[in-house]
């Protein structure tokens, strides 16, 4: 939303930014079921159009301070309860959608794995490094791996940072094997005459 606004308002974007942020903060969020501003303040924020409507309709009524504070507190509690319910249901829906594509993974002690670790000297970069050996399984999601060349020789790792390591078999390793052995490993199909 902000990117699109900036692309359209190339010359005077900074003047319209507060209005864009106001619109974003007062828009109803699907996951919460209400706007962030109503969660923060306990009521809908009065925008320019609402103020014009109130002046036109003369809806403004004076409320005593203590009564107003108790009303705001009740609204905040109600808004918090509604937002919590909506957020929980939204999280359940997101989990179901995620679990459709998720595949269960598990490793055992002794398995060789690659680990997604930060690159030294590059704090915002990470890559798969290894292979490292799994020493123990703390839970279904956490493992202790052995990292002998690192400062920490043992480190806990979440399963999301692990992937299995597969040893490559090179063709060069077959160079020392005789022709008969290669034909046994890779049989040639017989062609019809």
In short:
Helix content is 42%, strand content 19%. By secondary structure, it is an alpha+beta fold. The protein has two domains: 2-101, no CATH class; 112-172, SH3 type barrels (Roll), CATH 2.30.30.
Report on the structure:
- With 193 residues, the chain is of the alpha+beta class.
- The chain folds into 2 domains: 2-101, no CATH class; 112-172, SH3 type barrels (Roll), CATH 2.30.30.
- It contains 6 helices and 5 strands; from the N terminus they run αααααβββββα.
- It has a 5-stranded antiparallel β-sheet with strand order 4-3-2-1-5, with no helix packed on it.
- A hairpin with a 4-residue loop joins strand 2 and strand 3.
- The longest helix has 37 residues, at 65-101.
- The protein is elongated, with a radius of gyration of 31 Å.
- The N and C termini lie far apart (69 Å).
- 5% of the residues are buried.
Q: Tell me, what's the shape? A: elongated
Order of helices and strands: HHHHHEEEEEH
The unreliable regions are: none
Mean pLDDT: 79
How far apart are the termini? 69 Å
**How are the strands of the biggest sheet laid out side by side?**
4-3-2-1-5
Number of H/I helices: 6
Count of separate structural domains: 2
Please report the total strand number as a whole number: 5
